[in-house]
Amino acid sequence: MPAERISDALRQAAGEFGAADVRFRLDRPKDTDHGDLASNVALALSSRLRRAPREIALELRARLEGIRGVDRIEIAGPGFLNFFLEESAVGRVLHEIQQADLAYGRNSGGRGREIMVEFVSANPTGPLHLGHGRQAALGDAIASLLEWSAWRVHREFYFNDAGAQIERLAASVRVRYQQLLGHEAVVPEGGYHGAYVVDIARSFRDKVGDRYENDDSDAAMDAMRRHAVGALRAEQERDLAEFGVRFDEYYPETRLYTDGRVAATIQDLDNTGLTYVKDGAAWLRTTAFGDQKDRVMVKSDGSPTYFLPDVAYHMSKWDRGFREVVNVQGSDHHGTVDRVRAGLQALGRPAGYPEYVLHQMVTVEQGGEEVRFSKRAGSYMTLAELVEEVGADVARYFFLMRRPEAHLTFDLDLALDESDKNPVYKVKYAHARVCRLFELARERGWARPRDADTGPLDSRLERELINRLREFPDFLRRAAAARAPHVVCDYLERTAGLVNSWYQTGHPTRSPERAVLVADERLRNARLTLADAARIVLRNGLAVLGLEAPERMVRL
RNA sequence: GCGCCCGUAGCUCAGCUGGAUAGAGCAUCGGCCUUCUAAGCCGAGGGUCCCAGGUUCGAGUCCUGGCGGGCGUGCCA
Q: What pLDDT was estimated at residue A374?
């Protein structure tokens, strides 16, 4: 690729100035008048060398003669080097895209190493809500981006199948169960009121009949708890499948107790000498690792706080060989980050382990009003309800199109719109339109061109689109590194916009001479080559985000 | 009080390692359908990038101090 040759040449030239380690950029300028690629290297060197940037740029240009694929170099503005590529080098990008096809956009950054992405990790105490939906979309897309960057990704879902919340759930189910058997009973303080609890009680009754009537023994509660957890896990599973998200492993909290990890973690922490007893509780000196205050591991009543299994759980990740772990969590959990890391550091793990992506909450708006309704959960809208309403792809995309750390306002009106105003449809239509060209070409007996002469692609718009397609791998690399799927959304929307413009300006209605399917074979094949490259990029981009790329959209 | 995140067009938001004239969608206004899907395209208006300092050749981006909003700050999960 010309970009790599230019980058190498710049690095070498910088070395001749005695500044081989200078940081500079080489990227596509916003304005096509500024060439196909531009570098700020002269500006970066100027502060080091204490010389005027334009002067340095002139000398650099003299050393950059004869890079293959480069037509000319201009110096502009305060000292930018603007590279204009040869027509053939521009066109070659399209051939490279065609050749790479399904693999176009992949990079080898991960070098086949293993990484775990933990996400959703909802407790089985209710249906998945929209916060989980955002997290499911985010975690899955981050995992996918990492796969495109040559990481071997393990998708994991952790859930608390024991503890106070689960006991409250079981107690709530018990109340509904008693009510079904004709008894008076009231959902306890802090219990769960959603309609789903009644459904669980009903399925429990259908299974066991009245065997546990008026029975609040441990065995009865245990049976209800297991039934409720099983039912809710199954429901969450269905919702996630409907949403198109799958996990490699589900890790239950109880396993940490049954396999002795929690006990071992207490022992290991004690051995560090960083623990102490105060007010009858066992504490860990997490302040030694930057936490704001020390944390209780074991309460004075002898039961562990959630902090302990959290540390034990993350030790299990390490022990399973994951040196790279990304935890996707709601930002309401950010208070746990420091203490978990501190606990792990106490046990000798590195300071930044694990990595966190924290996302803000989701609100839904329709007609400018916030929507709070949920039949099933009794409060906020569930993921299943949203997917039912707008479809999995639209929901996914909307969850992904904002930076994780920004609050997300889900605009239901826009989500339900099936025109190009809706960014999801905009991208899908761009793909479908391009596919349609090949369908029509086939009908006329014109094959998909390979290695076509791309010389005729000389319009400003075509040049811009080609440069855009060339950048796709960089965007994926950057999105993966930043754990930021919204970068891909942004890229796809802009690319789709260019594709739509190009398609439309060449519409036979207005300017038949710019149409793709013209009689002139050279022109036609050049344009079909560009269309094919655009098709590949849009399809691959949608694939990264876990969205379908339809070849045809049904007209309503 | 302390910690983390956010503050960019009327609205929702992008803006990479500090780079050229701060961008997109929605909304508003004006054009374009006998032909590859007009579910579209072209164009216009719209900005003290929360405020004040600082660093720099250059700051929406980095630093300091404010202001406003969200979240956290339990022997809750």
A: 66
**Nearest nt (C1') from A76 Cα:** B20
So what's the pLDDT on residue A556? 47
Tell me: pLDDT of A133 over 50. yes
Secondary-structure percent of chain A, ordered helix, strand, coil, rounded to 5: 55, 15, 35
ipTM of the complex: 0.93
Degrees to nearest 5, angle at CA A77 with A72 and A79? 70
Beta bridge partners of A129: A382
Two tokens at A406? Answer: 């920004």
pTM of the model: 0.94
Residue nearest to nucleotide B32 (CA to C1'): A510
Q: And the tokens for A164?
A: 């106070």
Residues pairing with A158 in the sheet = A251
Using C1' positions and the CA of A471, the closest nucleotide is: B16
State how far the Cα of A124 lies from the Cα of A122, in Å rounded to an integer.
Answer: 6
CB-based contacts of A183: which residues, under 8 Å, 6+ apart? A213, A214
Dist. CA A472–CA A541, nearest whole Å: 8
**What count of other Cβ atoms lies within 10 Å of the Cβ of residue A11?**
15
Q: Which residue is nearest to nucleotide B73 (CA to C1')?
A: A335
A30 pLDDT more than 80 = no
